[in-house]
Design a protein that fits this description.
The chain is α/β, with parallel strands linked by helices. It has 23 helices and 12 strands. The chain has helices spanning 31-34, 36-51, 62-74, 89-94, 107-118, 131-137, 155-168, 212-219, 228-231, 236-250, 259-271, 284-291, 294-297, 304-310, 313-316, 324-337, 357-388, 399-407, 426-434, 439-458, 469-486, 496-505, 511-530; strands spanning 54-58, 78-82, 123-127, 147-151, 171-178, 181-187, 191-193, 275-276, 279-280, 413-415, 539-543, 548-552. The strands form 3 sheets. It has an 8-stranded mixed β-sheet with strand order 3-2-1-4-5-6-11-12, with helices on both faces. A hairpin with a 4-residue loop joins strand 11 (539-543) and strand 12 (548-552).
């Protein structure tokens, strides 16, 4: 098991019990039962990645505490909280992990102790220091972590943190709650995703262009020779392969193209149903075939994201330091251009079909054999690549990892975020402020940046003093305009009403907004830790006033 962060500092070092010290008795838990919900979503291998994760949280306010709470409940290995604040009355009001008895005490210590009570297997420590100071004075502090969640961090400190995390290969999630506004951004140089798990995944059946074994299996089924019971239990996959072959024979090898062709194709399948006095007998398998007929003519196009991956320089220029993902991507590209005939490896899974158990198992076996053959071909390409590259000879990638990669090859993703200091492109800002549906949330993004400039110039947040509200509105609007001019954006401006709303917030961190933003931050953290699902690729603005979100890229 990975050890807890061992942080060496000349003067200040994390305090507090780090969980189960060496030699002490480790609680025996039933992982399958405790983490059942997580395992059902991201699998045992995903849970294993979570349980190895070492997390650093900067600022244990409402937003940060909520995000870390979710990860502790999920079973991370360890965490360290960096926070130099003392517990104040506002903390008691907006943070469920802080109690009135802790007033005046260390906020980092209080939240650490409460979080450790939620999951005794997670190790926790804290450091009483201002995060902004730590970022500037001791960047090597972050070497020990897999992921950093930085909350309520001023822009200048966020720029520096983003830079040092990129240099060290540490994933960074920036989260912020400001009044009724939320901000979230992932900062990663490169993040690869094998299991992107799209919401609407279509099974890879290839009934329109079957491989020889599948075509032979379908041709071997003589529908006319079957009795009624067998006829009504032929899997619809077989029916569609037979129908596609029959159509091609009658149409010069072409699949249905026009809407009239497709209607005629479905009528052909209906004509195969058994009849009594010319009335078709309802057969569920034929109903499934007609409902899924579109799978025959659906174009087998390689997704643009996957095409971009196999053509990426990282996949076409392999060196001794190339990561396994890109070795696999290079092997995938070779497979697609050779054995795959333009297609990625077959997944090998089947949807439910109305069929006898034996017929379904026979069909499943055909798909599994094809999938295994494709995996073997990709594995061979991987071996060739290792032999071709100096520094890789003799190395290999685990068979289970190659299999997982092949199974999800249709949905691979790579996320790269631009350095935070670059800001959003001027075209994004101009388009966001010009469009009605994004005007408000783009304005909020600009105003959050203006708030940080206000803080840097006046050492306070706008709206802190009631007698300076009008003056602060004018100052904040001017700073927002300056940000737009620096970005090369003219002719558009931020929403005046929102300037007043931001000033009215006075820098307050509300519990309900912190809970929402914190939950989203922990969700993004899980994506980054497990390598599953596609993480946020831009800047998310949550507008609780309008109950809307926008992702600015």
């Amino acid at each position: 098991m990975t050890t807890a962060p061992q942080i060496s500092r000349p003067q200040n070092s994390p305090s507090g019990d780090t969980g189960n010290e060496s030699g002490s008795m480790v609680p025996v838990i039933d992982r399958q039962r405790r983490y059942d919900r997580g395992i059902r979503v991201w699998g045992a291998h995903g849970q294993e990645a979570v349980e190895k994760a070492r997390i650093c949280l900067l600022n244990a306010g409402s937003t940060g505490s909520e995000s870390l709470k979710n990860l502790v409940l999920g079973g991370i290995h360890s965490f360290t909280i960096v926070d130099g604040q003392k517990v104040e009355a506002t903390d008691v009001g907006n943070n469920y992990l802080v109690t009135a008895s802790s007033l005046g005490g260390s906020r980092a210590q209080c939240v650490t102790e409460c979080l450790k009570e939620l999951n005794e297997t997670v190790k926790g420590s804290f450091l009483e220091e201002d995060p902004a100071t730590l970022v500037s004075t001791n960047p090597d502090f972050f070497n020990s972590f897999d992921l950093v969640i930085a909350t309520q961090l001023p822009e200048i400190s966020a720029f520096a943190l983003d830079s040092l995390c990129r240099e060290r290969g540490v994933a960074l999630v920036l989260a912020r709650s400001y009044g009724l506004v939320g901000y979230l951004r992932n900062c990663v140089e490169e993040h690869t995703v094998i299991e992107s798990k799209p919401d609407s995944e279509v099974h890879d059946l290839r009934v329109g262009e079957p491989w020889p074994e599948l075509a032979a299996a379908a041709a071997a089924v003589d529908l006319d020779a079957l009795d009624d019971a067998e006829h009504s239990h032929v899997p619809y996959g077989i029916l569609l392969v037979k129908a596609a072959a029959a159509w091609k024979d009658a149409h010069d090898g072409q699949l249905p193209k026009s809407s009239s062709d497709r209607a005629e194709f479905k009528d052909m399948i209906r004509s195969w149903q058994r009849k009594i006095d010319d009335c078709p007998i309802p057969e569920e398998n034929f109903g499934e075939a007609i409902a899924c007929a579109h799978k025959v003519w659906a174009p087998a196009i390689l997704k643009s994201e996957v095409k971009a991956i196999i053509e990426d320089e990282a996949a076409t220029t392999i060196t001794g330091t190339t990561a396994d993902f890109w070795i696999l991507a290079a092997a995938l590209g070779r497979f697609i251009n050779n054995e795959g005939d333009g297609q990625p490896p077959l997944e090998g899974s089947l949807p439910d079909m109305h069929a006898t158990t034996q017929r379904y198992l026979d069909l499943q076996h055909i798909y599994k054999e094809k999938a295994e053959a494709d995996i073997a071909a990709v594995t061979q390409h991987v071996a060739v690549l290792f032999n071709e590259v100096a520094g890789k000879d003799g190395k290999s990638i685990a068979a289970t990892e190659i299999k997982r990669f092949c199974r999800h090859a249709r949905h691979l993703r790579v996320v790269r975020s631009r350095p935070l200091v670059e800001g959003l492109p001027s075209d994004t800002l101009r388009a966001g402020l010009s469009a009605e549906d994004t005007f408000l949330n783009t304005s909020l993004h600009i105003l959050l940046r203006a708030v940080d400039r206000f803080l840097g110039q006046y050492q306070r947040y706008p709206g802190k003093y009631d007698n300076e509200l009008e003056e602060d509105v004018a100052l904040l609007k001017g700073l927002a305009g300056s940000i737009l001019l620096e970005a090369g954006v003219s002719g558009v401006g931020v929403c005046d009403d929102l300037v007043g709303e931001i000033v009215r917030c006075g820098g307050g961190e509300l519990q309900v907004i912190g809970a929402i933003v914190g939950a989203m931050a922990s969700q993004e953290a899980i994506k980054l830790l497990t390598g599953q699902f596609v993480p946020l690729g831009g800047t998310l603005i949550y507008n609780a006033m309008q109950c809307t979100t926008s992702v600015l890229i």
